[in-house]
Design a protein that fits this description.
Number of domains: 2
CATH superfamily of the largest domain: Type I PLP-dependent aspartate aminotransferase-like (Major domain)
Strand order of the largest sheet: 2-10-9-8-7-3-4
Oligomer: single chain
CATH architecture of the largest domain: 3-Layer(aba) Sandwich
Shape: globular
Radius of gyration: 21 Å
Number of helices: 14
Strand content: 15-25%
Bound molecules: 4'-deoxy-4'-aminopyridoxal-5'-phosphate, glutamine
Order of helices and strands: HEHHEHEHEEEHEHEEHEHHHEEHEEHEH
Low-confidence stretches: none
Structural class: alpha/beta
CATH topology of the largest domain: Aspartate Aminotransferase, domain 2
Length: 396
Amino acid sequence: MAAMTSTPRSRPLLNRRLAEFGTTIFAEMSALAVRTGAINLGQGFPDTDGPEEVREAAVRALRDGRGNQYPPGPGIPELRTAIAQHQQDRYGLTYDPDREVLVTAGATEAIAASLLALVEPGDEVVALEPYYDSYAASIAMAGGTRVPVTLRPREGRFRLDLDELRDAVTDRARLLLLNTPHNPTGTVLSRDELAAIAALAVERDLLVLTDEVYEHLVFDGEHIPLASFPGMRERTVTISSAGKTFSFTGWKVGWITSTPELVTAVRSAKQFLTYVSSGPFQYAIAEALALPESYFTGLREDLRAKRDLLADGLADAGFEVFRPQGTYFITTDITPLGEKDALAFCRALPERVGVVAIPNSVFYDDQEAGAGLVRFAFCKREEVLREAATRLRRLR
Ligand code: PMP
Ligand code: GLN
């Protein structure tokens, strides 16, 4: 039988809230990579696993029967304690592991549960554009209206216009959704920018959801959690995830830190999405968070070298390169190559030169702003990046 896309009464099966969201670009492009055998610099996942001792910790937990049955709803105490310790040691932020930390199925569930819990239908959610794709879908599932504020290139990086942000906050605004370090542009918001955002949130009494999954991947400048600014701790839900920091994206261990009231609200939604997840992996990530500083420095320095390697290769191939301050993505402009349609370019790239990338255009409402922008991931082995650069040079 042919796939049924509508009922006999011709009502589309996929509801109106989700109608604009087909297959995610990451799934489409990874499938294209598999089909063509191209080098996959699209979807952001490392091609080598994280630390051996963390993997072994997961094996041990599994063998010892820890986490094989439903873990506690908020997450295992060991992990909640490790998360609270991490926020304390790194940022001087104090969270009660029992009331102010919630473990989620990756950052993705943290985002969805937060929006489902905190947004009423019709509320506006102000988000930076380009936005990570699940933001738009989760806002839509919550019945909210997204109000994008576009990051625009200036002097080599994508910048936030604070006046534009201020203008975007209407009386219907409920929540500000931020992401720093920012996927896909690699922008790391500065102390001054964050202070201005915080002041606006306080002035307009907004809730803030801040996605900081790339907190350990900062090469220039520093990561400052938004929750550390005056008046912010009580209105901010901070999201992070083990996927990026420990190179185990398949384990889907994420978390939020916030006030008891906000954590309780988010848990109300989360318990009906997955209830719990990743039992044995929670034990392993509790250990991972306590790795010595040399681990975090090593990860950053390794990725910094890879960033520079791929950025130079892309520039050599004729792309305009926006060297990221953080994350493991490089955004490029393809117009110097005589191209202007990022999606068409990315769909053709595997056949042309054997490389897969992500069209940033799908992360924009303002189609013109994103038309010629393409993202490449550099969380890959050095020889893979070198080969990709060689192939991309054939575009010249
Ligand atoms: N937020 C951002 C900005 C991301 O890039 C990603 C993708 N890794 C996520 C959230 C989702 O993280 P997770 O895999 O932990 O669900
Ligand atoms: N966060 C990853 C990226 O930006 C993708 C995660 C996913 O496939 N949903 O590439």
